[in-house]
Amino acid sequence: MEHAIQNPARRTFIKASALVGGGLALGVSLPSMAHQHLGSDFNPSAFIHLYKNGDVVLFCGRCEMGQGISTALPAAVADEMEADWSRVTVKQGEGNAEKYGPQATGGSASIVTMYEPMRQAGATAKLMLIAAAAKVWRVSAEECEASNHVVIHTPSQKTLGYGELAELAAVQEVVEAPTLKDKSQFKYIGKALPRHDQSMVVVGERTYGVDTKVPGMRYAAIVHCPVLGGKLKSLDDTDARAVAGVIDVVTIPRLDVPFGSVGGVAVVADNSWTAQKAVKALVVEWESGPNGNYDTKAYRAQLIANVEKPAEKVAERGDLTAAFETAEHKVSATYTGGHLCHAPMEPNASVVWVKDGSAEVWASTQSPEDIQNVLGDYLGIEPKDVYVHVMMSGGAFGRKFKCDYVQEAAAISKHINAPVQLIWTREEDMRTGYYHSINAQHIEASMDADGNVTGWLHRAAFPSISSLFNPALERAPANSLGEIENHPFGIANLRSETGEAPAHTRIGWYRAVYAIFYGFAYGSIADELAHKAGMDTVTFLHKLYDNNKNPEHKEQVARSKAVLQLAADKAGFGRKLPPGEGIGIAVHHSFRSYVAMAVHVRVTGDKIEVLNVDCAVDCGQVLNKDGATAQQEGAVVMGMSLSLYTEIVFKNGAVVNSNFHDYPVLRINEMPNVRVHFVDSDYPPTGLGEPGVAPFPAALTNAIFAASGTRHRDLPIKPMAI
Amino acid sequence: MSSVTINGKEYPIDVAPDMPLLWFLRDRLELTGTKFGCGSGLCGACTVHIDGTATRSCVMPISAVAGRSITTIEGLSENGDHPVQKAWLKHQVPQCGYCQAGQIMNAASFLANNKQPSEQDIEAAMQGNICRCGTYQRIKLAIADAADELAKEV
């Protein structure tokens, strides 16, 4: 028996049904899925299962890669449901947007998209349990309340457990527009909750995509075409086929779609090691194609040249020429950064089993929908016939949004007619990425005698993510520079321009995306301007925000200023420090959240030690305080890696780096003391996976300047000579 | 045929002698708790104990461990209650968790040999283990805690 209601105000749709064997199942349909509301496809098994023994299983439709979403969202359900968290098990939903809503997990959007619907589902379940209890007791539901997995009849203090009520609850009417809790009533939301899967992790039982085992499964390794757009010239696989245990060699042509293979040669064997060994025995020659001359050293120099001369206008306001003519001070600077690869600890891996008219996939992924679409197209089957088991990702940071590695496994499985696990080696992972944009930004800013910024010319040049979808793009499109005209700094006269920057490799989302380099440029030049004006950076930044008179920016200004002051206070910005030490500060608003960082360094000659980092965060209502704190700690580590050391270098069209010895991510011996401070905010919750990375690079380089007088404008500060 | 003891159980070595221990564990025995990260001994994700000493299993040929005793994350403790595991839970160390088996195995071996580690000792001992999520601060706190716990047990 099924019931359904529609809440027209929010267009969220909740549907309840009985579980097989008794119990309550409750599903939610999101506004974006509205067209399916009354269709028979709507499977109500999503999200909440309450069993007769009182066990609750909550499904997480968003992909988990370590960011903690599979704890934060179910905890919001449990809170509204008045469920006992210790009775709750969390399961990862399979790839099914009809059941779970949009699952493509990126842009720090999970909390923004799912928070309200999840709470509504929990609140609805609670009301149905109360209705069931009221029926048993033959009393009015208004005399009952729910708390910690039981319903209580308040006048008599009789109780019934959720398990006992599960079956009856399933046939109660679905309550329309349930009232959600007030913040003061939260039990789990905003508290420090343990992650649901930690006890499995510490005993090695948490299984990731790479851990999948399927009966009859073969193992594959691959070597890719090293240059984008190149192709196979010759292949001699005699030695590879001679390796004991090798089953087949499969040539995979380039699939010219954004998330398709760049082309490669795979070896299939009876274990991963044999496959990897045999790949090394392949004699392969590649034709480089049009990108064979790509050289990042020369390219960065070209980007600098392109932003230090007039470029294509994107946006303009006020009268910049007049502002520059009447300026008391002018500061101009060019900031650059290199390509980055995500390098999650789990390299790309999946198991694919192509069958007759369907395919089954086990993958660490951020976007099961893209797997369904890409494989559907590639195999000539319906996306819905691609069943995706969404596996835990051993880190992703944007890389596993793109399913080229899954499509390759599909090509191999199709060829050998068996399930196959393709694991990329670290070298292939590093050399076949979707890299963060190499970039250059040139800013010229003018000030009056009182340190008010009067004009701002901002030129940016970087191969954009849009180039992945339109390789003919000569420069980043206007919407990739939207950040500049919308930045909450108060600048009356402004002009933004985009410089020539064609892409010669695949560009992709990397944790914090463009906010990495915008945050660096904005945070750096603010510090440079403050010094020019003879003011401390915190006072200068407050003034810069206060000068923003755009009423639409009122909230952004207030929240930016609040995190700025909080970070400054916690770090003791402005206090006297020993010689060689300095504190730098930067603020950045991205992905709807606000983060300020104060970085305290000690500089001794060439040695840079990061001692303390104070992070001030306004992400609205915090869901899991411990998880949110962990995201900031991680953002600092990623920020340090990319500020100090990591850069992907291309020569002759191909990546030179190969493994962690020449892509030196941060190690524990350089870990600073990170302190995370949250603004107690009543704003709706916003994401945290990415925003923390953005202010770090500028806060660090500002600190180095304060400590040593050296201004670093090019990232990474200490590139490896490779 | 030579054999190797893994978590107290003896297994024949029935694979190519140059197969690294990591792949013997993962593909032959399907013990997947030990992770593949770099394949070159650079990241520590594959750390196991060989006769009690933390070793990178991705660069250790199976033939070299014949007759020896291996402990993996699955065999570190009976009930997941090694002081290092408990400290990891207390400090909620893992984010994605992928590197943590290697971190835990490395820390357990280190603490067996250094009962009162300083912060510098911990950093030096754990430098070979990369965590891309950035859990280092919690790892340091958890190891210090586990050291205190181990000191009580003696």
UniProtKB/TrEMBL annotation, chain A:
Domain Aldehyde oxidase/xanthine dehydrogenase a/b hammerhead: 203-290
SUPFAM superfamilies from the UniProt entry: Molybdenum cofactor-binding domain
Keywords, alphabetical: Signal
Positions of transmembrane segments: none
InterPro entries: Ald_Oxase/Xan_DH_a/b, AldOxase/xan_DH_MoCoBD1, AldOxase/xan_DH_MoCoBD2, AldOxase/xan_DH_Mopterin-bd_sf, N-heterocyclic_Hydroxylase, OxRdtase_Mopterin-bd_su_IorB, TAT_signal, TAT_signal_bac_arc
Coiled-coil segments: none
Classification via PANTHER family: ALDEHYDE DEHYDROGENASE, BLR6219 PROTEIN
Protein name, entry field: Molybdopterin-dependent oxidoreductase
Natural source organism: Alteromonas arenosi
UniProtKB/TrEMBL annotation, chain B:
Pfam families: Fer2, Fer2_2
Keyword Iron among record annotations: yes
Listed CDD domains: fer2
All copies of domain 2Fe-2S ferredoxin-type, residue ranges: 2-76
InterPro entries registered for this protein in UniProt: 2Fe-2S-bd, 2Fe-2S-bd_dom_sf, 2Fe-2S_ferredoxin-like_sf, 2Fe-2S_ferredoxin-type, 2Fe2S_fd_BS, Beta-grasp_dom_sf, Diverse_Oxidoreductases
Source organism superkingdom: Bacteria
Alphabetized UniProt keyword annotations: 2Fe-2S, Iron, Iron-sulfur, Metal-binding, Oxidoreductase, Ubiquinone
PANTHER family (UniProt xref): BLR6218 PROTEIN, OXIDOREDUCTASE WITH IRON-SULFUR SUBUNIT
Protein name as catalogued: (2Fe-2S)-binding protein
Phylogenetic placement of the source organism: Bacteria, Pseudomonadati, Pseudomonadota, Gammaproteobacteria, Alteromonadales
